[in-house]
Design brief:
By secondary structure, the chain is mainly beta. It is built from four helices and twelve strands. The longest helix is centred in the first third of the chain and has 9 residues, at 44-52.
């Protein structure tokens, strides 16, 4: 679809620089405004992700685009005690519809930090189903953030399942910036790995 994009941040820099200039760290986590940290937009782990981000995806659907098949992004920790710092951006223009599945996994021997961040912008009358599954091993610490901005009559269903990790904390936030925007957030934590 003309004007749309699905791929890595690296490819988005090459093929959709105007999108990144307009939307990256603007509406969801505005950069360069110290007041936003006070208002809970960001904070130290946001700053860490912005400083060290090493991977991620960008999804942009133009006005009226409806995609039935889910977009899937799978992130895996690297060997040893290294960290991963994915930063993702989802932008649905007016009337667009999509399903996004975002997963985080690790091999048995991996340790370290998983520090993902996802910015989501749902335009007027757009609909997004966003599913996050964290299934890291008991040596990995997960501290992530997902923030959705919903415009008028837009809708976002956000389901998050945290099945593993040594410690897992997610900052899930939604902001309805125009009338009749709606966000429904579901969260599940599995405490069986607690020590």
């Amino acid at each position: 679809q003309a004007g749309g994009f699905w791929g890595s941040v690296e490819d988005a820099v090459k093929h959709s620089p105007a999108l990144l200039e307009a939307k990256w760290a603007t509406e969801v986590y505005p950069a360069g405004n110290p007041g936003d940290i006070i208002n809970r937009k960001g904070g130290k782990f946001h700053a860490l992700n912005q400083a060290l981000f090493d991977s991620g995806y960008v999804l942009h659907l133009p006005k009226g685009t409806q995609v039935a098949e889910p977009f899937s992004a799978d992130f895996r920790t690297r060997g040893g005690k290294d960290g991963i710092f994915p930063h993702n951006l989802i932008v649905l223009e007016e009337g667009a519809e999509a399903v996004v599945l975002e997963t985080y996994n690790s091999a048995d021997g991996d340790a370290g930090l998983c520090n993902p961040q996802t910015e989501i912008i749902v335009g007027p009358h757009a609909r997004l189903r966003y599913v996050l599954i964290q299934d890291l091993n008991e040596k990995v610490t997960n501290i992530g953030a997902q923030h959705v901005v919903v415009r008028g009559h837009g809708h976002c269903t956000f389901a998050s399942a945290h099945l593993g990790a040594k410690l897992s904390k997610d900052f899930m936030e939604s902001e309805m910036v125009e009338p009749y925007g709606e966000a429904i957030l579901y969260g599940l934590y599995n405490g069986l790995h607690a020590q």
